[in-house]
Amino acid sequence: MARIIVVTSGKGGVGKTTTSAAIAMGLAKKGHKTAVIDFDVGLRNLDLIMGCERRVVYDLINVITGEATLRQALIKDKRCNQLFILPASQTRDKDGLTKEGIGKILEELAKDFKYIVCDSPAGIERGANLAMYFADDAFVVTNPEVASVRDSDRMLGILASKSRRSENDEEPIKEYLLLTRYSPERVKIGEMLSVEDVQDILSLHLLGVIPESKSVLTASNAGTPVILDEESDAGQAYADVVARYLGEDKPHRFIDEEKKGLFRTIFGSK
Amino acid sequence: MSLLDYFRSSKPGSASLAKERLQILVAHDRISRNQPSYIPKLQQELLAVIQKYVNVGKDAISINYEQNDNQETLELDITLPDKSRQNN
Predict the structure, then answer these.
(1) ipTM of model
(2) How far A135 CA lies from chain B's nearest CA (Å)?
(3) Chain B: residue whose CA lies nearest to A194
(4) Which of A267, B53, B64, B65 has its CB 3.0 to 4.6 Å from that of B75, i.e. a possible disulfide?
(5) Count of structural domains within chain B
(6) Contacts of residue B13 in chain A, CB cutoff 8 Å?
(7) Is residue B26 one of the residues assigned to a domain?
(8) CA–CA distance from A218 to each of A26, A55, A213, A263 (Å)?
(9) B48: domain range?
(10) Residue A267 — very low, low, confident or very high, per pLDDT cuts 50/70/90?
């Protein structure tokens, strides 16, 4: 049985695509055959973050309209043979996205794949609604910032009411919190909402905290999912997220300020 | 919190303000999310009927919807104006 994961947030720019790319790569690297689908028709970016933008021939809409087969449209990742990318259409109108079309694609993918990661666009329009409609699990990507937290709560309401599971009275979508762009230093001096603050408000199961990190931009510059940068804090944090999602017991990291060495404490370097 | 921390953090940061605002907002959003979609219209129409007979303002009526296990309660609260003002 395939498991369908939606990466959602409501608000834009919080790290949905970065997260989708990282966890899809993480799951695939653990040996699970994984497909990651870009639902942002007209503004596709997953291909760039994954570094396969020059290999896009067919896209999601082509498959829905029958202009290409799923097999033709799926791009096999060059770094991990268990990972496949289904890009969004850049030119077509998003009216091409239909519930029936997406349902058929997911059904076909489910025969062959273990995990299907749906990278949702921002907002609450058709693409976002369809990305979450068929989901089993939802990763709610949130920044420790008022607008993002509010929008995440809004998405929780939609996840609970407008999904296949809710319409069929099945077990609800499992919702997980992924707190991204976290700065323990700023939390410590009361400038930023803490993990506990956000959990108090959203009451979600915390899957992981991704620290604000230079490595995210570096990775996107190069078209490499940040999880492949095993030296980086963000890469390690995403690896933990994947492990936790798969049921491993990993203590949370990157929540507290990094301890400064004695030298730096005494001389107070920044 | 240690004594040292107490002296160090002289003024609370803006994060606590953010949390407070969010808690109020999210609670409010959730209430309106869980109520039936006809409530705002019902409130509007009821107000129109009441205004036909009594001179009340827009905020004179409040509707509170609650849902327990298998029971839905609709609480309607209408505030009539003071007698002294009515006589004017």
Answers:
(1) 0.83
(2) 21
(3) B15
(4) B64
(5) 1
(6) 189-191
(7) yes
(8) 18, 21, 9, 29
(9) 21-80
(10) low
